[in-house]
Amino acid sequence: MKKLLTLTSGALAVFALPLVTSAAVSNISDVGSLIINTINNIFVPVLFAVAFIVFLWGAFNTFILGANSEDVKEKGKSLMLWGLIGFFVMVSVWGLVNILTGTIILGNNAGVQHPTTTGVGG
After folding, report:
1. Would residue 90 count as lying in a domain?
2. Spatial CB neighbours of 52, under 8 Å, sequence gap ≥ 6
3. Looking at the predicted structure, is the pLDDT value of residue 118 above 70?
4. What is the dihedral of CA 97, 99, 102, 105, to 10 degrees?
5. 70-104 and 44-60 helices, crossing angle to 10°
6. What pLDDT is recorded for position 18?
7. Which of 4, 17, 62, 76 is 20 to 30 A off residue 52, Cα-Cα?
8. Which residues contact 38 (CB under 8 A, 6 or more apart)?
9. pLDDT in tens, 59-116
């Protein structure tokens, strides 16, 4: 597990390096947008991938490796459960964060667009 975390953090650093080096930060709003975009575009997909791999590894343990051993089946079922819990927690938190950023209008400088009534009926 430690090896997987080391590889994952190394991959994150490699993929995030171009974002950090090419970022033109001129004010605090740009820093906030950079952080939000990095989290949404890099960290969240990697965490979803890790949760999916954990779920698949649990399914593999349950149905393939644990065909004859109840102990291995239980470990696989446990991994599948933790993978599903991880998915649920990440989707919930991601949804709440998107609701909050949409409410506060972070990273969206356009604001609310109101329709104009010019040219319609005088």
Report:
1. yes
2. 83, 87
3. no
4. -60
5. 160
6. 54
7. 17
8. 16, 19, 20
9. 888 888 777 888 888 888 888 888 889 889 888 888 887 787 777 765 555 555 556 6
Residue 88 domain-assigned (yes or no): yes
pTM > 0.85: yes or no:
no
Number of structural domains, the chain? 1
Tokens standing for residue 55: 């779920």
Cα 49 from Cα 87, distance rounded (Å): 10
* The two three-digit tokens of residue 2, written as one number: 């430690």
Describe the crossing of helices 44-60 and 2-21 by its angle, rounded to 10 degrees. 160
Indicate the length of the chain as a whole number: 122
Residues 6+ apart with CB under 8 A from 33: 106, 107
Helix (H, G, I), strand (E, B) or coil at 34: helix
Q: Which residues of 23-35 are buried (b: 16+ CB within 10 A; e: fewer)?
A: eeeeeeeeeebbe
Q: Provide the residue range defining the domain that includes 64.
A: 26-104
Radius of gyration of the chain (CA): 22
